[in-house]
Amino acid sequence: MWIFHSANNYSERVFFVTWSRWCLCYCAAVACLLLSPVRTDDVCLSSCVCARNSGTVTCREGEDTEVPGDIPEWTSTLVITGRNISTLQRGAFMTNGTDLEVTTLLLSYNGIQVIEPYAFLGLPRLHLLDLSHNRLETISARAFHGLPELRSLYLNDSVLPVATTQLSAALSTQSLSNLHRLELAGNRLMSIPLRALDIYNLHALVLVNNSIETIGRENITNLYQQKRLRVYLSLNPFRCSCGLDALYYWLKNSSQCPDAKHLLCSEPEAKRGTPVEMLQGEDVDCGTENLETVSYVFLGIVLALIGVVFLMVLYLNRGGIKRWLNNIREACRDQMEVYHYRYEQDSDPRLANVAV
Ligand SMILES: *[C@@H]1O[C@H](CO)[C@@H](O)[C@H](O)[C@H]1NC(C)=O
Ligand SMILES: *[C@@H]1O[C@H](CO)[C@@H](O)[C@H](O)[C@H]1NC(C)=O
Ligand SMILES: *[C@@H]1O[C@H](CO)[C@@H](O)[C@H](O)[C@H]1NC(C)=O
Ligand SMILES: *[C@@H]1O[C@H](CO)[C@@H](O)[C@H](O)[C@H]1NC(C)=O
Ligand SMILES: *[C@@H]1O[C@H](CO)[C@@H](O)[C@H](O)[C@H]1NC(C)=O
Ligand SMILES: *[C@@H]1O[C@H](CO)[C@@H](O)[C@H](O)[C@H]1NC(C)=O
Protein backbone atom coordinates (compact mmCIF):
# COMPACT_ATOMS: atom_id res chain seq x y z
CA MET A 1 0.00 0.00 0.00
CA TRP A 2 2.65 2.52 1.15
CA ILE A 3 4.84 1.42 -1.65
CA PHE A 4 1.97 1.84 -4.03
CA HIS A 5 1.11 5.19 -2.48
CA SER A 6 4.62 6.52 -2.60
CA ALA A 7 5.00 5.12 -6.02
CA ASN A 8 1.86 6.96 -7.04
CA ASN A 9 2.71 10.12 -5.07
CA TYR A 10 3.73 11.87 -8.18
CA SER A 11 0.70 10.88 -10.20
CA GLU A 12 -1.59 11.80 -7.29
CA ARG A 13 -0.12 15.29 -7.18
CA VAL A 14 -0.67 15.63 -10.89
CA PHE A 15 -4.26 14.45 -10.42
CA PHE A 16 -4.83 16.98 -7.61
CA VAL A 17 -3.49 19.88 -9.61
CA THR A 18 -5.58 18.91 -12.63
CA TRP A 19 -8.69 18.52 -10.47
CA SER A 20 -8.23 21.85 -8.77
CA ARG A 21 -7.82 23.52 -12.15
CA TRP A 22 -11.07 21.96 -13.34
CA CYS A 23 -12.73 23.07 -10.14
CA LEU A 24 -11.57 26.64 -10.63
CA CYS A 25 -12.78 26.65 -14.18
CA TYR A 26 -16.14 25.25 -13.14
CA CYS A 27 -16.53 27.81 -10.38
CA ALA A 28 -15.68 30.60 -12.82
CA ALA A 29 -18.23 29.28 -15.29
CA VAL A 30 -20.92 29.11 -12.60
CA ALA A 31 -20.03 32.62 -11.45
CA CYS A 32 -20.30 33.83 -15.03
CA LEU A 33 -23.71 32.27 -15.44
CA LEU A 34 -24.90 33.72 -12.14
CA LEU A 35 -23.53 37.20 -12.83
CA SER A 36 -24.54 37.53 -16.49
CA PRO A 37 -28.26 38.36 -15.96
CA VAL A 38 -27.16 41.46 -14.02
CA ARG A 39 -25.51 42.84 -17.17
CA THR A 40 -28.79 43.00 -19.16
CA ASP A 41 -27.32 45.55 -21.61
CA ASP A 42 -25.49 42.83 -23.48
CA VAL A 43 -28.63 40.80 -24.00
CA CYS A 44 -30.09 41.81 -27.37
CA LEU A 45 -33.59 41.52 -28.76
CA SER A 46 -34.37 38.30 -30.55
CA SER A 47 -33.15 38.29 -34.18
CA CYS A 48 -31.39 41.62 -33.70
CA VAL A 49 -27.72 42.53 -33.33
CA CYS A 50 -26.73 45.03 -30.67
CA ALA A 51 -23.55 47.06 -30.80
CA ARG A 52 -23.46 48.96 -27.54
CA ASN A 53 -20.27 50.85 -28.42
CA SER A 54 -21.85 52.54 -31.40
CA GLY A 55 -25.33 52.59 -29.89
CA THR A 56 -26.67 50.61 -32.84
CA VAL A 57 -29.39 47.97 -32.86
CA THR A 58 -29.87 46.19 -36.18
CA CYS A 59 -32.83 43.92 -36.85
CA ARG A 60 -32.81 42.27 -40.24
CA GLU A 61 -35.06 39.72 -41.94
CA GLY A 62 -37.25 38.00 -39.40
CA GLU A 63 -40.67 36.54 -38.91
CA ASP A 64 -41.81 39.43 -36.72
CA THR A 65 -44.50 41.61 -38.26
CA GLU A 66 -44.19 44.29 -35.61
CA VAL A 67 -41.59 46.71 -34.38
CA PRO A 68 -39.54 44.98 -31.64
CA GLY A 69 -40.90 45.83 -28.22
CA ASP A 70 -38.02 46.32 -25.81
CA ILE A 71 -35.60 48.59 -27.60
CA PRO A 72 -32.64 49.20 -25.24
CA GLU A 73 -32.64 52.71 -23.86
CA TRP A 74 -29.03 53.33 -24.95
CA THR A 75 -30.00 52.91 -28.64
CA SER A 76 -29.13 55.89 -30.83
CA THR A 77 -29.39 54.17 -34.22
CA LEU A 78 -32.16 51.67 -34.83
CA VAL A 79 -32.19 49.71 -38.09
CA ILE A 80 -35.16 47.51 -38.91
CA THR A 81 -35.17 46.20 -42.45
CA GLY A 82 -36.48 43.34 -44.57
CA ARG A 83 -39.39 42.58 -42.25
CA ASN A 84 -43.07 42.37 -43.05
CA ILE A 85 -44.38 45.27 -40.97
CA SER A 86 -47.59 46.22 -42.74
CA THR A 87 -48.75 48.80 -40.18
CA LEU A 88 -46.73 51.25 -38.12
CA GLN A 89 -48.97 51.60 -35.12
CA ARG A 90 -49.48 54.59 -32.86
CA GLY A 91 -46.53 54.85 -30.49
CA ALA A 92 -44.80 51.88 -32.15
CA PHE A 93 -41.45 52.98 -30.74
CA MET A 94 -42.52 53.79 -27.20
CA THR A 95 -41.00 51.37 -24.73
CA ASN A 96 -42.95 51.24 -21.52
CA GLY A 97 -44.28 54.75 -22.08
CA THR A 98 -40.86 56.39 -21.94
CA ASP A 99 -39.04 58.37 -24.62
CA LEU A 100 -36.09 56.85 -26.48
CA GLU A 101 -32.93 58.77 -27.33
CA VAL A 102 -32.86 57.36 -30.88
CA THR A 103 -31.51 59.89 -33.40
CA THR A 104 -31.45 57.70 -36.53
CA LEU A 105 -34.27 55.37 -37.50
CA LEU A 106 -33.91 53.33 -40.68
CA LEU A 107 -37.05 51.46 -41.76
CA SER A 108 -36.52 50.70 -45.45
CA TYR A 109 -37.77 47.53 -47.17
CA ASN A 110 -40.36 46.58 -44.57
CA GLY A 111 -43.45 46.50 -46.78
CA ILE A 112 -45.03 49.21 -44.61
CA GLN A 113 -48.49 50.08 -46.01
CA VAL A 114 -50.08 52.11 -43.23
CA ILE A 115 -48.68 54.78 -40.93
CA GLU A 116 -51.07 55.45 -38.08
CA PRO A 117 -51.36 58.81 -36.27
CA TYR A 118 -48.52 59.49 -33.80
CA ALA A 119 -46.58 56.43 -35.01
CA PHE A 120 -43.28 58.10 -34.10
CA LEU A 121 -44.27 59.35 -30.69
CA GLY A 122 -41.60 58.96 -28.04
CA LEU A 123 -38.69 59.79 -30.37
CA PRO A 124 -38.15 63.47 -29.56
CA ARG A 125 -34.46 63.39 -30.58
CA LEU A 126 -34.98 61.82 -33.98
CA HIS A 127 -32.79 63.51 -36.65
CA LEU A 128 -33.08 61.11 -39.56
CA LEU A 129 -35.99 58.93 -40.63
CA ASP A 130 -35.67 56.61 -43.63
CA LEU A 131 -38.94 55.10 -44.84
CA SER A 132 -37.70 54.31 -48.35
CA HIS A 133 -38.78 51.27 -50.36
CA ASN A 134 -42.03 50.57 -48.60
CA ARG A 135 -45.56 50.46 -50.06
CA LEU A 136 -47.38 53.29 -48.35
CA GLU A 137 -51.06 53.52 -49.22
CA THR A 138 -52.42 55.11 -46.04
CA ILE A 139 -50.56 57.90 -44.29
CA SER A 140 -52.28 59.64 -41.41
CA ALA A 141 -52.29 63.44 -41.44
CA ARG A 142 -50.75 63.17 -37.96
CA ALA A 143 -48.21 60.50 -38.94
CA PHE A 144 -45.19 62.78 -38.40
CA HIS A 145 -46.39 64.54 -35.28
CA GLY A 146 -43.94 64.75 -32.39
CA LEU A 147 -40.72 64.95 -34.42
CA PRO A 148 -39.51 68.49 -33.64
CA GLU A 149 -35.85 67.73 -34.38
CA LEU A 150 -36.27 65.79 -37.60
CA ARG A 151 -33.82 67.11 -40.21
CA SER A 152 -33.83 64.41 -42.90
CA LEU A 153 -36.81 62.45 -44.16
CA TYR A 154 -36.29 59.82 -46.87
CA LEU A 155 -39.33 58.47 -48.67
CA ASN A 156 -37.84 57.31 -51.97
CA ASP A 157 -39.69 54.70 -53.94
CA SER A 158 -42.22 54.27 -51.16
CA VAL A 159 -45.42 56.26 -51.69
CA LEU A 160 -48.10 54.71 -53.90
CA PRO A 161 -50.10 57.13 -56.12
CA VAL A 162 -53.24 56.65 -53.96
CA ALA A 163 -51.38 58.14 -51.01
CA THR A 164 -49.89 61.29 -52.57
CA THR A 165 -52.67 63.58 -51.31
CA GLN A 166 -52.35 62.06 -47.85
CA LEU A 167 -48.60 62.61 -48.05
CA SER A 168 -49.15 66.35 -48.68
CA ALA A 169 -51.39 66.55 -45.66
CA ALA A 170 -48.98 64.58 -43.46
CA LEU A 171 -46.02 66.72 -44.49
CA SER A 172 -47.75 70.03 -43.85
CA THR A 173 -47.33 69.83 -40.10
CA GLN A 174 -45.63 72.45 -37.97
CA SER A 175 -43.85 69.62 -36.22
CA LEU A 176 -41.49 69.31 -39.22
CA SER A 177 -40.25 72.89 -38.91
CA ASN A 178 -36.62 71.78 -38.71
CA LEU A 179 -36.73 69.63 -41.83
CA HIS A 180 -33.61 70.26 -43.94
CA ARG A 181 -33.69 67.47 -46.47
CA LEU A 182 -36.70 65.74 -48.01
CA GLU A 183 -36.11 62.92 -50.50
CA LEU A 184 -39.06 61.76 -52.58
CA ALA A 185 -37.40 60.02 -55.53
CA GLY A 186 -39.27 57.38 -57.53
CA ASN A 187 -42.82 58.00 -56.33
CA ARG A 188 -44.57 58.83 -59.64
CA LEU A 189 -45.42 62.27 -58.27
CA MET A 190 -47.05 64.69 -60.75
CA SER A 191 -46.37 67.82 -58.69
CA ILE A 192 -44.52 69.06 -55.62
CA PRO A 193 -46.42 67.39 -52.77
CA LEU A 194 -45.97 70.33 -50.43
CA ARG A 195 -48.66 72.93 -49.80
CA ALA A 196 -46.24 75.57 -48.61
CA LEU A 197 -42.49 75.82 -48.28
CA ASP A 198 -42.11 78.47 -45.60
CA ILE A 199 -43.13 76.17 -42.73
CA TYR A 200 -39.90 74.15 -43.05
CA ASN A 201 -36.23 75.01 -43.05
CA LEU A 202 -35.67 73.07 -46.28
CA HIS A 203 -32.25 73.07 -47.94
CA ALA A 204 -32.74 70.10 -50.27
CA LEU A 205 -35.86 68.77 -51.96
CA VAL A 206 -35.16 65.67 -54.06
CA LEU A 207 -37.86 64.93 -56.66
CA VAL A 208 -35.82 62.92 -59.18
CA ASN A 209 -37.41 60.03 -61.08
CA ASN A 210 -41.03 61.15 -60.71
CA SER A 211 -43.78 62.04 -63.24
CA ILE A 212 -43.53 65.83 -63.14
CA GLU A 213 -44.31 67.37 -66.58
CA THR A 214 -44.03 70.99 -65.54
CA ILE A 215 -44.13 73.23 -62.47
CA GLY A 216 -46.63 76.09 -62.46
CA ARG A 217 -45.95 79.76 -61.92
CA GLU A 218 -47.42 79.78 -58.40
CA ASN A 219 -45.02 77.06 -57.24
CA ILE A 220 -42.06 78.70 -59.00
CA THR A 221 -42.80 81.97 -57.20
CA ASN A 222 -42.66 80.09 -53.91
CA LEU A 223 -39.38 78.42 -54.89
CA TYR A 224 -37.78 81.81 -55.65
CA GLN A 225 -38.68 82.92 -52.13
CA GLN A 226 -36.76 80.00 -50.53
CA LYS A 227 -33.33 81.21 -51.56
CA ARG A 228 -31.31 78.52 -49.79
CA LEU A 229 -33.46 75.67 -51.13
CA ARG A 230 -32.04 73.35 -53.82
CA VAL A 231 -34.48 71.26 -55.85
CA TYR A 232 -33.35 68.13 -57.73
CA LEU A 233 -35.55 67.32 -60.73
CA SER A 234 -33.74 65.00 -63.16
CA LEU A 235 -35.49 61.92 -64.61
CA ASN A 236 -38.87 63.63 -64.90
CA PRO A 237 -40.85 63.59 -68.20
CA PHE A 238 -40.94 67.33 -68.97
CA ARG A 239 -43.47 68.58 -71.51
CA CYS A 240 -41.51 71.14 -73.49
CA SER A 241 -44.23 73.39 -74.85
CA CYS A 242 -46.55 76.10 -73.68
CA GLY A 243 -46.71 76.04 -69.90
CA LEU A 244 -43.07 75.19 -69.22
CA ASP A 245 -42.20 78.90 -69.30
CA ALA A 246 -42.13 79.54 -65.54
CA LEU A 247 -39.93 76.49 -64.93
CA TYR A 248 -37.71 77.32 -67.95
CA TYR A 249 -36.97 80.87 -66.80
CA TRP A 250 -36.48 79.70 -63.22
CA LEU A 251 -33.80 77.24 -64.44
CA LYS A 252 -32.12 80.03 -66.43
CA ASN A 253 -32.45 82.72 -63.80
CA SER A 254 -31.79 80.96 -60.52
CA SER A 255 -29.19 78.45 -59.46
CA GLN A 256 -31.64 76.55 -57.29
CA CYS A 257 -31.67 73.40 -59.45
CA PRO A 258 -28.23 71.74 -59.20
CA ASP A 259 -29.10 69.06 -61.78
CA ALA A 260 -30.62 71.54 -64.28
CA LYS A 261 -28.28 70.27 -67.02
CA HIS A 262 -29.85 66.82 -66.80
CA LEU A 263 -33.48 67.81 -67.24
CA LEU A 264 -34.74 66.42 -70.57
CA CYS A 265 -37.87 66.93 -72.63
CA SER A 266 -40.16 63.95 -73.01
CA GLU A 267 -42.94 65.68 -74.96
CA PRO A 268 -43.58 66.69 -77.71
CA GLU A 269 -42.17 63.89 -79.85
CA ALA A 270 -39.97 66.28 -81.87
CA LYS A 271 -38.18 67.53 -78.77
CA ARG A 272 -37.80 64.22 -76.93
CA GLY A 273 -34.35 63.99 -75.33
CA THR A 274 -33.57 67.69 -75.76
CA PRO A 275 -32.15 69.28 -72.61
CA VAL A 276 -34.67 71.77 -71.22
CA GLU A 277 -31.89 74.34 -70.84
CA MET A 278 -31.15 74.16 -74.60
CA LEU A 279 -34.66 75.25 -75.55
CA GLN A 280 -35.26 78.73 -76.95
CA GLY A 281 -37.53 81.20 -75.25
CA GLU A 282 -40.09 80.96 -78.06
CA ASP A 283 -40.32 77.15 -77.60
CA VAL A 284 -42.02 77.63 -74.26
CA ASP A 285 -43.30 81.19 -74.53
CA CYS A 286 -46.73 80.57 -75.98
CA GLY A 287 -47.87 83.15 -73.42
CA THR A 288 -47.03 86.09 -75.74
CA GLU A 289 -48.58 84.41 -78.83
CA ASN A 290 -51.79 83.98 -76.92
CA LEU A 291 -51.62 87.53 -75.70
CA GLU A 292 -51.29 88.85 -79.31
CA THR A 293 -54.22 86.82 -80.58
CA VAL A 294 -56.32 87.93 -77.65
CA SER A 295 -55.45 91.60 -78.18
CA TYR A 296 -56.29 91.48 -81.94
CA VAL A 297 -59.64 89.88 -81.25
CA PHE A 298 -60.30 92.49 -78.58
CA LEU A 299 -59.41 95.35 -80.92
CA GLY A 300 -61.72 93.96 -83.61
CA ILE A 301 -64.62 93.74 -81.19
CA VAL A 302 -64.07 97.31 -79.97
CA LEU A 303 -63.98 98.65 -83.56
CA ALA A 304 -67.14 96.75 -84.50
CA LEU A 305 -68.90 98.15 -81.41
CA ILE A 306 -67.89 101.71 -82.28
CA GLY A 307 -69.19 101.19 -85.84
CA VAL A 308 -72.52 99.85 -84.60
CA VAL A 309 -72.93 102.75 -82.14
CA PHE A 310 -72.15 105.24 -84.92
CA LEU A 311 -74.71 103.69 -87.25
CA MET A 312 -77.34 103.67 -84.47
CA VAL A 313 -76.75 107.36 -83.75
CA LEU A 314 -77.13 108.13 -87.42
CA TYR A 315 -80.30 106.09 -87.67
CA LEU A 316 -81.97 107.52 -84.56
CA ASN A 317 -81.19 111.10 -85.62
CA ARG A 318 -82.21 110.71 -89.23
CA GLY A 319 -85.00 113.41 -88.84
CA GLY A 320 -82.67 115.84 -87.12
CA ILE A 321 -79.94 115.23 -89.65
CA LYS A 322 -82.32 115.96 -92.53
CA ARG A 323 -83.33 119.23 -90.89
CA TRP A 324 -79.74 120.08 -90.25
CA LEU A 325 -78.81 119.39 -93.87
CA ASN A 326 -81.71 121.54 -95.02
CA ASN A 327 -80.60 124.33 -92.70
CA ILE A 328 -77.12 124.15 -94.09
CA ARG A 329 -78.41 124.20 -97.62
CA GLU A 330 -80.60 127.20 -96.87
CA ALA A 331 -77.79 129.01 -95.13
CA CYS A 332 -75.62 128.41 -98.17
CA ARG A 333 -78.29 129.70 -100.48
CA ASP A 334 -78.79 132.83 -98.39
CA GLN A 335 -75.10 133.46 -98.42
CA MET A 336 -74.96 132.95 -102.19
CA GLU A 337 -77.79 135.40 -102.63
CA VAL A 338 -76.04 137.99 -100.48
CA TYR A 339 -72.91 137.62 -102.61
CA HIS A 340 -74.93 137.79 -105.76
CA TYR A 341 -76.66 140.98 -104.59
CA ARG A 342 -73.30 142.56 -103.60
CA TYR A 343 -71.83 141.64 -106.93
CA GLU A 344 -74.67 143.21 -108.75
CA GLN A 345 -74.33 146.39 -106.67
CA ASP A 346 -70.56 146.50 -107.11
CA SER A 347 -70.88 146.17 -110.86
CA ASP A 348 -73.50 149.02 -111.19
CA PRO A 349 -71.62 151.78 -113.16
CA ARG A 350 -73.74 154.62 -111.70
CA LEU A 351 -72.78 153.72 -108.19
CA ALA A 352 -69.15 153.52 -109.20
CA ASN A 353 -69.28 157.06 -110.56
CA VAL A 354 -70.89 158.37 -107.34
CA ALA A 355 -68.06 156.91 -105.33
CA VAL A 356 -65.46 158.60 -107.52
C1 LIG B 1 -46.99 39.99 -44.68
O1 LIG B 1 -47.94 39.80 -43.66
C2 LIG B 1 -49.27 39.74 -44.08
C3 LIG B 1 -50.16 39.56 -42.87
O2 LIG B 1 -49.69 40.31 -41.81
C4 LIG B 1 -49.46 38.62 -45.08
O3 LIG B 1 -50.78 38.62 -45.56
C5 LIG B 1 -48.49 38.79 -46.23
O4 LIG B 1 -48.59 37.69 -47.12
C6 LIG B 1 -47.07 38.90 -45.72
N1 LIG B 1 -46.18 39.17 -46.84
C7 LIG B 1 -44.97 38.63 -46.97
C8 LIG B 1 -44.19 39.02 -48.16
O5 LIG B 1 -44.51 37.87 -46.14
C1 LIG C 1 -41.72 49.99 -17.00
O1 LIG C 1 -42.47 50.85 -16.22
C2 LIG C 1 -42.72 50.38 -14.90
C3 LIG C 1 -43.59 51.38 -14.21
O2 LIG C 1 -43.99 52.38 -15.05
C4 LIG C 1 -41.38 50.20 -14.18
O3 LIG C 1 -41.61 49.66 -12.90
C5 LIG C 1 -40.49 49.26 -14.97
O4 LIG C 1 -39.22 49.18 -14.36
C6 LIG C 1 -40.34 49.77 -16.40
N1 LIG C 1 -39.55 48.82 -17.16
C7 LIG C 1 -38.58 49.16 -17.98
C8 LIG C 1 -37.90 48.08 -18.73
O5 LIG C 1 -38.23 50.34 -18.12
C1 LIG D 1 -32.88 57.54 -51.43
O1 LIG D 1 -32.73 57.16 -50.08
C2 LIG D 1 -31.44 56.77 -49.69
C3 LIG D 1 -31.50 56.41 -48.26
O2 LIG D 1 -32.23 55.23 -48.11
C4 LIG D 1 -30.45 57.86 -49.98
O3 LIG D 1 -29.16 57.48 -49.64
C5 LIG D 1 -30.51 58.23 -51.45
O4 LIG D 1 -29.61 59.23 -51.74
C6 LIG D 1 -31.91 58.63 -51.79
N1 LIG D 1 -32.07 59.20 -53.10
C7 LIG D 1 -32.11 58.54 -54.27
C8 LIG D 1 -32.28 59.38 -55.48
O5 LIG D 1 -32.03 57.35 -54.36
C1 LIG E 1 -37.44 55.17 -60.78
O1 LIG E 1 -38.51 54.85 -59.92
C2 LIG E 1 -39.09 53.58 -60.17
C3 LIG E 1 -40.25 53.42 -59.23
O2 LIG E 1 -41.16 54.48 -59.38
C4 LIG E 1 -38.06 52.48 -59.96
O3 LIG E 1 -38.60 51.24 -60.24
C5 LIG E 1 -36.87 52.75 -60.89
O4 LIG E 1 -35.85 51.82 -60.64
C6 LIG E 1 -36.32 54.15 -60.67
N1 LIG E 1 -35.31 54.44 -61.64
C7 LIG E 1 -34.13 54.93 -61.33
C8 LIG E 1 -33.20 55.19 -62.48
O5 LIG E 1 -33.81 55.16 -60.18
C1 LIG F 1 -48.14 74.39 -55.90
O1 LIG F 1 -49.25 74.75 -56.65
C2 LIG F 1 -50.48 74.16 -56.24
C3 LIG F 1 -51.57 74.63 -57.19
O2 LIG F 1 -51.08 75.09 -58.38
C4 LIG F 1 -50.79 74.58 -54.83
O3 LIG F 1 -51.94 73.92 -54.40
C5 LIG F 1 -49.63 74.20 -53.93
O4 LIG F 1 -49.88 74.68 -52.64
C6 LIG F 1 -48.34 74.79 -54.45
N1 LIG F 1 -47.24 74.36 -53.61
C7 LIG F 1 -46.18 75.10 -53.38
C8 LIG F 1 -45.16 74.50 -52.51
O5 LIG F 1 -46.02 76.19 -53.88
C1 LIG G 1 -35.01 86.15 -61.53
O1 LIG G 1 -34.66 85.83 -60.21
C2 LIG G 1 -34.87 86.83 -59.25
C3 LIG G 1 -34.42 86.31 -57.92
O2 LIG G 1 -33.32 85.49 -58.02
C4 LIG G 1 -36.35 87.21 -59.24
O3 LIG G 1 -36.55 88.27 -58.33
C5 LIG G 1 -36.79 87.63 -60.61
O4 LIG G 1 -38.18 87.88 -60.62
C6 LIG G 1 -36.48 86.53 -61.60
N1 LIG G 1 -36.83 86.93 -62.94
C7 LIG G 1 -37.66 86.24 -63.74
C8 LIG G 1 -37.88 86.76 -65.11
O5 LIG G 1 -38.20 85.21 -63.38
Automatic annotation (TrEMBL):
Residues 236-287 form the LRRCT domain. The keyword Signal applies. The keyword Kinase does not apply. GO terms for biological process: negative regulation of canonical Wnt signaling pathway. GO terms for cellular component: plasma membrane. The chain crosses the membrane at residues 296-316. It holds the Pfam family LRR_8. Keywords: Leucine-rich repeat, Membrane, Repeat, Signal, Transmembrane, Transmembrane helix. InterPro entries: Cys-rich_flank_reg_C, Leu-rich_rpt, Leu-rich_rpt_typical-subtyp, Wnt_signaling_inhibitor. It comes from the Eukaryota. This is Trophoblast glycoprotein-like. The lineage of its organism: Eukaryota, Metazoa, Chordata, Craniata, Vertebrata.
